[in-house]
Structure formats: C-alpha cells, structure tokens
Amino acid sequence: MRMLIANGTVIDTDPEPRVLPGADVLVEDGVIVAVGAGLGAEDAEVVDATGLIVLPGFVDTHRHVWQSVLRSAAADATLGSYLDLVLGRFAPAFLAEDVYAANLWGALEALDAGITTVYDWSHIQLTPAHTDAAIDGLGESGIRAVFGYAHPGTDDASRREDEVRRVASRGLPGLLTPALAAWGPVYGSVEAAQADWRLARDLGLRISVHATGTGTVERLHRGGLLGADVMFVHGNGFTDEAMKLVADSGGVASVAPAVESQMGHGHPETGRFRGFGVTTGFGVDTVTDTPGDMFAVMRAAFAAERSRGGSLTTAEVLRMATVEGAAVLGMDDRIGSLRPGRQADVIMLRAGDLGLAPVHDPIGAVVTAAGSANVDTVIVAGRVVKRAGRLVDVDTRRALDLVSRSAARIAEAAGTAAPVAP
Ligand SMILES: [Zn+2]
Q1: Fewer CB near the terminus (10 Å): N or C of the chain?
Q2: Global pTM value
Q3: How many Å lie between the centroid of ligand 1 and the Cα of residue 213?
C-alpha cells in the first residue's frame, strides 16, 4: 500500500528542523520511503497536502493517561495537594472499567491533538484487571504507546514483580511497548529501587522515574543504578553534579514544563539538561491541571526558558517535541522524523486557519501559534486516524459516554463536585 502526501509545507526534524516548501512524503506499507518535491507515485493513494503543514507526530514522553477522567479536577493544586487529592482520594475509587475508559479517552485526545506516541506512566495498577484495562484502552485507540507499569503502591510490600513479568511477556496489542515506571528512591526505599532496576534490566524494560531536588541521582549513582535505560522525569533543582552524572551515564530526561511551572516543582530545566548534553523530551504529565496537547507544552517550555534568560529556539523546542522525544524513549530509529525508513507517524496542520495564517515561519508558527484545532490529519504507522479534522474509525460518542460515567462515579466516591454532564 502506497500513500503520497502531496505538495505540503513539510517540516522535517532530523538532524535539525527545516522547511521543505511544496514537498511530498511517500509512504509504503506504513513506512516513509521518500521525501522531496515532485515525487509522484501513480499507484499511490494521494493525500492532497496543499495548504497544510506536514510534520512528524508529536512524542509525549510522560503522561499519566488514566487521569484523563480527572481533567482540571486539581486545577489550583500544588504538588502536595495534587498527591493528596489525585493519588490519595481519586485513585482508590478507580475500577478497572474506569481505567479502560480513561485510557481510551486520554489516548484519543492525544491523537486528536497530533500526539502519535505517548509514554503512559501508569500508576493505577490496583489489580491485574486494572492493568489489562489500561492496556486495552491504549491499544484500542490506535496510538503508539509505551506502557509504563508502576507498582500499585510505593511501599516495598506493594511491589508486584509477577505482574511486571506478566506485562513484559503477555504480548501487548497494537503499537504498545512495555516499560517499568519505577517509584524510585523519591517515593520508595533504595532497596525497592534496586530490586526494580534488577527486574527491569532482567526483562529488558526501560526505566522511568520521577525525580526532583537534590540527592536522588546521587543515591542512584551510589547504588550503581544509573544508565542509558533510565529516564528522569522533571529534574527540577538537580545539582550540576547530578546533571553531569545523568549525562555521563547516557540517561535521558523528560521535562513537563506546564505542570512544573504551575504546581511548584521549580523552574523547568529544559536549558540546563540540554546544556549538560542530556537528551531531553517533553511531557504533558497530567491533565488534572494542564491541557493535554503538545502545543501548550512547547509554549510553556519556550516561555519558561526564555524567562530565565535562556536562548532556546523554536526549532530546538520542535525537535524536543518530536525526534529528541523519540530518542528519550529509545525509539528514534523508528519515529520522530520523516527520514526514509521511519514509521509514517505524520500530522498535518491547516495553514489557512484563523489564528495560524499567515504563516511566515512554519517552525515558529507550529511552536508559538498552532493548536489542536488546527490539526487536520493524523497518521500513525501509515494508518489515517484523523482526517479533515475528525477522528475516524472510532466511536468517540461511546468513549465520551464511558468516560463521563466514570468521571461522575469517581467524583462521587471522592466527595468532589459532580462534573458537568456532556
Ligand atoms: Zn508524572
């Protein structure tokens, strides 16, 4: 099957973002085979990209997808009050069916906004049924995802090695890859972290861990736990020494600039991570208090870094939202750019929309002006999941009904205000 995305304003991201006006992207069996002007392909399905900005799908390196059902439920929260409300009161009320509804809805909203790959840091594994429901929701959406399993609690007794092994070996549906979302020494014991790292490395799973402030990286270093398979989420307030340890180990970083700025984690460390040579991507993190799209995240990162006197450019921001994010997930040999051989994860934005036209600088416009409403087409692995501004081949009404029912029930159980009925 061949598809020709014809005559778009193409932005490739590798090695550096650059604009190819009036270019085509040729896709064969879900893989990009050529990019350039006037490619032509007589037997291909032609997607007319005239008036569209064509670029690789966004890569969200850190999101708790199950929290889609809790949108804006902790809008004014700091990190402490978020933990009390979301993990302390909402999470225990989740049934497996709620996790399914939330993951389906959360993955669909990501796709709708042009995020074609998401790392789901999933700390809602209350039972094996919850785990299977989370995987089903992601799988059914059609998104490319890393499913990061987190033990159901932070204490040593809550570790579920058998479940991690089951997730790693059960065969995940669609475009899903398993990983270990580790609580790490910030939330759990050093012994538990050591056991988790051993387990993940034994199973060939990459590790993602939340960390801020001083001491965590140093503790992991002393325990011999740093490595190229470890993703540090946030990193606010890392010392220069910690940054250097991460860089020297080949570890990677995921910055969630909107959440960090609002919830008081500290200044987003985008510029410092990059300055130390750490491969850095972006994450939405949670929609309990921020929007679920990469446009908002890119702008939060750009503004926060510039407010600090940093020299971050829109091209660097777009790179982190795509190919560098893919590298954070260890997937830049497959996704994140339009280089021939890469999976056809492609999005198209309407350059003529209100709020986006006229487009003087396509890269600058994508980062500073575009939004989810401009996303016309989304393709994952060569499959069109959004066309002419609407998701296709998915019953969004059913997904909305499910997530609305779950939201109402969970709010009642947690004793918070009932959500507005759709
Ligand atoms: Zn997080």
Answers
A1: C
A2: 0.98
A3: 15
